[in-house]
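Researcher: I'm comparing several assemblies side by side, and this is the next one on my list. It has 354 residues spread over two chains. Same procedure as the others: predict the full complex and return the structure.
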Amino acid sequence: MSDYVWRLHVLVPVRQVSHAGEVACKVLPGGESERATFGVPLRADLSSAWEAEGSPVVTYMGASVLVTERQRTELLGALQAAGVEALWAVLRADTEETVAGAPALALEAGHPWNWEDTLAAVRAAGRPQEG
Amino acid sequence: MSIPAGPGDPVGGVPDLSGGGGHATQGTTALKPTLVASAFPSGRSGLSFDGVDDRLLVAGVGAILSGDDVPFTVGLVYRVTDSTYRAMQGLGNGATATPYTMLYSVSGTTLAHYRRDNGSVATTLSGPAVTVNATQVVVASFGEMPGVTARTIINGTLEQSGAMDVGTMTVDRFIIGAAERAGTVLYPFKGYIGAWAVYNRALTAAERTSLARYLMAWAGLGA
């Protein structure tokens, strides 16, 4: 049976993405390759920045990652310890139902959930507010 | 690729069984697709791509497809699970946003080719209809001469073709499960991808049919 029990959605402010990448390098198994973990650029309205032409302003960087319980604990703990203002949602890996989320997102457990739901929860929480 | 993945595990590599060394790999945990048992009617496993950032890079193929309308053919077993823009396969350049190409589903209705060259010239070729939540096989060819023709064929029968002359593209990566612009994910695929095959030429009609039949049998579609 797989040890990968959680699907973790994480958004970090673009100004902190280098710190978040360093944390991922230390916590996740891929070493330096993990610097690319937070690689989904999002505009202020949390739409994908790269679906727009030109040079859109990126506000948050996102990631969707399959992790073990140990990796989940260490990653979120290390992001907090590094002062990264991460917004996150934890889903069951098999059913992709909500388990928990960052307090600001006020998630209820047990709901079917996808990436767009996480983005909507961040919008509802009034984030992001800076570029 | 030293440790075989089990169902539910992230997949960091898929070996090239042709002997050509075109292994598909991904070193970043968040970008790895997930192995799913019995993903297709044949009972074979597949890779689940999360529609956010998952993708595999096929070693060495992107570079040899750089140039002026360099021909190639890709065949792929897939199941799209939603109806937004999703790229199954792409070519890109890590240094610039301009040159890229992709084979993508358009709002769950069609499969289309899109290419953009070093000078920002873009062209799109619409293809046949995609069925959401159904296992299908696509064979897509580019750069067939004369006329620089591209073709998209679903399940060996539904075919659309047309001219798609873009010009020179300098690409350095061949991606399964997304396209990339300047190394950043674009239209990430959400659904399942099984076997794929890549050729550095435009296959003939008979060869396209053979490839489609092989992939349909692999998927259990009763070709």
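Model: For your comparison table: The interface with chain A takes residues 6-10, 12, 27-32, 34, 50-54, 85, 97, 181, 184-187 of chain B (CB under 8 Å).
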